[in-house]
Amino acid sequence: MALADLQLERLLQRSDLWRGDAYHPEQEGQDSGYPELNRHLGQGGWPSQGLCEIFYACEGIGELSLALPLMRRLIPRQSREGSPAGLVSLVAPPHVPYPQSLAMQGIDISRLLWVDTQTSKELLWALEQILTSGVSPLVLCWLEDLSVGQARRLQLACEKGESLCLCYLPSKVKEQAHPVPLRIALQPSTAINIGTNIEASTEASTKKGNDRLLETQVDILKRRGGWPAPRFSLSLLPELLAQSLMLDMAKQQELDKQQSGQILQGPWSV
Predict the structure, then answer these.
(1) From 184's CA, which of 41, 134, 147, 168 has a CA 20 to 30 Å away?
(2) Whole-prediction pTM
């Protein structure tokens, strides 16, 4: 038994053996900017390269906010001396990117590449060229559908160019199995509390977690080196917008208090 145990221990120490939720320490990820997401991804954040599918049930649930911290780290508005030059590419976004809003998030918009196409064939061709070139360490793309063959081809392009591609897809196609390292599904929260007990101090409310101003349900359907993770919640509202909404709600609450003292109450006599 001692010899068998020793052989088993040697086998378990092999780096090419997968052990459920046991991650290889040498495979470090990129910080997503969300500690809870980093913990569930298991490698400290986003993969360093590869095709990651993000399925979203509807627009405006924080799908772009999910990538903002990574964009800010890769192309900061105030670049440090000696920092590597590169681009962040937006391929076929559903809406025209708003430069002022991205700049307010600390992103250097001069290093953003916006690619718009007319057909899906042009989209996939442009996407493959950008990923293969290696000039854009992060690529965000929006697709209506993706076949197994197309996913495999884009994954190979990511590996060749050492690029990370976050591919946004509608939730209706998440049942398709694709050979990619990471698959995430986003859904709006079924219970959003936007401040049932808002205090006059915006700072105090912010310390309470912004009262869950925008909470998105996250399901990790597939992750390399581990089983799918249980559902968890992320608050994906950008910090400046969260502070603005908290201030507006605090003002509205103060206004409601002032108006409540001016309301005449019954009983009324005729």
Answers:
(1) 134
(2) 0.74
Spatial separation of the C-alpha atoms in residues 140 and 166, rounded to whole Å: 5
According to DSSP, the residues that pair with 188 across neighbouring strands are 216
pLDDT in tens, 17-75: 655 555 544 457 899 999 999 988 877 899 999 999 999 999 988 899 999 999 999 99
Q: Are 161 and 133 in contact (CB under 8 A)?
A: yes
Task: Report pLDDT digits (tens) over 168-215.
Answer: 999 999 988 898 999 999 998 754 444 433 232 233 333 344 444 568
3-state helix, strand, coil in the chain (%, to 5): 35, 20, 45
- Residue 114 CA to residue 90 CA, distance in Å, equals 5
Of 169, 164, 125, 162, nearest to 146 by C-alpha is 169
Asked if 136 and 89 touch (Cβ cutoff 8 Å), the reply is yes
Residue 38: which domain range? 23-77+85-184
Extract the tokens encoding 66. 């999910």
Q: What is the CATH number of the domain that holds 93?
A: 3.40.50.300
Q: Is residue 63 part of a domain?
A: yes
